[in-house]
Each structure stands twice: as structure tokens, then as C-alpha cells.
Design goal:
Elements: H1 4-16, H2 20-33, H3 38-50, H4 56-66, H5 71-83, H6 87-100, H7 105-117, H8 121-134, H9 139-151, H10 160-168, H11 173-185, H12 189-202, H13 207-219, H14 228-233, H15 235-252, H16 258-286
């Protein structure tokens, strides 16, 4: 029979692989043997946080009830508060931890990320730079710097932290894919194309990468520019466009000259036909990777 320490280690290992149920099974076996084992309780709290369980904060409090100074549990509590939008409590918890370990790069990065979410980019950059001085090649430090570069509007080719992260941690390429997807969703298509081009250069035979690059090229094609509101805001953009046309035609009756009202009606009809028919035709003829 595995002892509680071994089962806690096994659970953490499954968590690193995203295997939540297997991690939970290991913890269940361990907690049946030792229901108050601190390592097992902390592993359960971490699992509840990573799997976005609604009881994550309760699990953290179970750890702190036994060990009020447990650093891992205190950090988890601050991160949960941040996820819940309780920024003041998250900041207070992180500052308490930093008082005892002011040079800890992980704590500095978590605090920088909290400030980044609050829009305090200057303070966040200062904290991330401080973390980089003590751990210049740490994955979390480089990820935080890359996120700050993105928030400050830098293009992928100018994001030194991103390039360094990919060189040191090839497995972190998923971060670059996420970046490309995020930029495309925001319709920051120039930066998205650069991120996709970097991915293609690194993995030219990866079908997923090629498809992503083709999708971004499709969105940024010059003939798709009239559809920007629809691509950027989805149904809201579509309703806004068509609602605006209909309102203009309705309010223009009796006010606009008939030839102008007729021209507006034709423009609305032409745009409707274009938006329904043209995108799939462009995709089929110009971007076969997206079929």
C-alpha cells in the first residue's frame, strides 16, 4: 500500500499532466489512510484550484486550519481571490508572502500578473523585471514578461522574452499558439500574422500550425475588411451593422431623396449578399488549408 507522501506525489504528477480524475483517485486513497495529512490536503487544494472546482477556497482553508503559515496554501488563497476578482485580498496575501521572501521570483510574477490584470502595467513591469534579475531563464518569469509585452502592444518579433522562452523551453510553444489565437480574436491581425509566421518557421510540417496561419491570413485578407465588425464582435457586430442599415432606411423614408434611399437599400442588399456568400468562396478558392 502506498504511504500518504507517495500518493500526494503521485497526485501532483497527474496534475502536471492535466489528469484530474486520476489525481483525485490518488488523493482519495491517501486521505482514507490519513485524513489530516498536510501534504495530501495541500495536494487536494491545488487540484481543486487547477480543476476550477467551486470548493477550492474551502480546501485551502482546510490546509491553513492545520498550518496557518503554509506558503503554498497562502499563495493558492491569493490566486483564488484574484480569480474571483477580490483584488484587494489577493494583493494583501501576496504582499504578506513577499515580506518574508522579497526576492522570490514566483511571488513577484504572481503579483505582477495581478497588477497586469488591474491595468497597472508600469508597476507590473517593475515587478517582472525584478523577478528576471534573480531568475532570468525561469519559465514563469519569461511568460510574465511576454504577457506584459503583449499588453503593452509589442509585436511578436519585438518580444524578446517570448523568443527566449521558446528557445529554452520548446514545449512552451503552446504559449505562442495561444498568443496567435488571442491576437486573431482581438483582430490584431498584423501581430497575429507575425506570431503565426514564427510558428510556421519552427514547425512547417505541423498541419495545425499551417491551418492556424491560413486562418489568420484569411481574416486579414484585404477583401474581408468590410466584415471587420462582424469578425471582431461576432453576433453583436452583425446586429449592429444590419440594424444600422435598417434604421437608416426606415428613418430615411420621407426625408432622403428617393434615388439616395434606393442607393442605400441596394448597398444594404449588396452587403448582405457579400457577407453571406463571399467568405466561404474566398476560403474555398484562396485558402484550401481551411476546407
Amino acid at each position: 500500500m502506498n504511504n500518504p507522501g507517495e500518493l500526494a506525489f503521485e497526485a501532483h504528477r497527474w496534475m502536471e499532466r492535466g489528469q484530474w480524475q486520476r489525481a483525485r483517485d490518488a488523493l482519495r486513497r491517501g486521505l482514507e489512510q490519513a485524513p489530516e495529512d498536510l501534504d495530501l490536503l495541500y495536494a487536494r487544494a491545488r487540484l481543486d484550484f487547477l480543476s476550477e472546482s467551486s470548493i477550492a477556497l474551502d480546501s485551502v482553508e482546510d490546509v491553513l486550519a492545520i498550518a496557518p503559515e503554509h506558503v503554498g496554501a497562502r499563495l493558492l488563497r491569493a490566486r483564488i481571490h484574484a480569480e474571483q476578482g477580490r483584488h484587494a485580498e489577493a494583493e494583501s496575501g501576496l504582499l504578506e508572502l513577499l515580506r518574508t521572501a522579497p526576492q522570490d521570483s514566483e511571488l513577484l510574477c504572481h503579483y505582477a500578473f495581478l497588477l497586469l490584470r488591474a491595468g497597472q502595467l508600469v508597476k507590473a513591469r517593475a515587478l517582472a523585471s525584478e523577478a528576471a534579475r534573480s531568475a532570468p531563464e525561469d519559465l514563469m518569469v519569461l511568460s510574465t514578461l511576454a504577457l506584459l509585452d503583449l499588453a503593452e502592444g509589442r509585436k511578436p518579433r519585438d518580444m524578446g522574452a517570448l523568443g527566449k522562452m521558446l528557445d529554452l523551453y520548446p514545449e512552451a510553444e503552446s504559449t505562442l499558439r495561444t498568443l496567435a489565437y488571442t491576437l486573431a480574436e482581438r483582430m490584431q491581425l498584423g501581430a497575429a500574422r507575425e506570431a503565426a509566421a514564427l510558428l510556421v518557421r519552427r514547425n512547417p510540417s505541423d498541419a495545425g500550425v499551417v491551418r492556424l496561419a491560413a486562418h489568420i491570413a484569411y481574416l486579414s485578407h484585404w477583401s474581408m475588411r468590410p466584415l471587420y465588425p462582424v469578425l471582431r464582435w461576432g453576433w453583436a457586430g452583425s446586429f449592429g451593422l444590419y440594424g444600422g442599415f435598417i434604421a437608416l432606411i426606415t428613418l430615411g423614408r420621407g426625408v432622403l431623396p428617393p434615388p439616395l434611399l434606393f442607393a442605400v437599400s441596394l448597398l444594404w442588399l449588396g452587403f448582405a449578399v457579400y457577407s453571406w456568400i463571399y467568405p466561404p468562396i474566398l476560403k474555398r478558392l484562396r485558402f484550401p488549408e481551411l476546407r
